[in-house]
Amino acid sequence: MFRIAASVLLLLPFLTPAAAQTPPATTQPSAQAAPPAKPAKKAAAKPKAPAKPAESASSGPCGIGVIAATQDPFVVEKIGLTVFGNEYAEVPVSWGLDDLVFARVRAAAGATPLRRITYANGAFDAYYHPKPSLFRNEREELSNLIRQIAGNAGCERYVVVTRGEGMLPGTNLPLRGLGILNRGVGPINYSFLYAYLGVTVFDGKTFEIRKGPGVTLEGVMKRMADNFVQDEHLRRVDNSLFPAAAAEASSSTTLRDNIREFLTERLDKILPPYFAQ
Question: In terms of Cα–Cα distance, which of 136, 112, 124 is closest to 160?
């Protein structure tokens, strides 16, 4: 027994180097494990992080809330020599006109933070198509409507862009919102795009209508001068742009592009003064 124990003691110095060689065998897998660590670089580059400010902007303090409410109906109107030759149709279109309105408000606002306020379908139906009444107060109606739509948004003020109304020059015929009209009889007729818009600013606490930038003597005189030279709400176009049937308007990409261009031009002229106050 003592001889066996002595033999083991004699072999120990030779066994320890062999035992020392075992760690490299265990360290090799760790060296091979380095390649799987490369995906960690993807985690380091997180380009999606900047998307968070958009969420905080929609839920944090609100300086200006924007309500775009042209609602995309497009008017096709024929005006003859008498009322019996007149035709009027509102055509539903999907041309992103309210998206365009918000984009131009954002461009006019510059660095001013905005929040787009959404609303339910049909929210403006009663405002645009009211029941007959001798004593309608449109300002009060719109103020109450915006109060409902704004809810708990808590913005300091609200900029609301709606369809407006004007008169066809030289007549008592109203023109509303965005559309195209053809005027005349037979070969003697002319076509025009028109864009009548209303921009209203509401106080975020009281929902009272704030005075617009154009309500000054200088602003009134300038608009009178502009209208004297040319009605800025109308743009003459080729008769080929006027649809043969009102329903065909929604599928005309040429008509869509023309009204979007004209709407952009009108908004870029109307909106900037509201953010220069």
Answer: 124
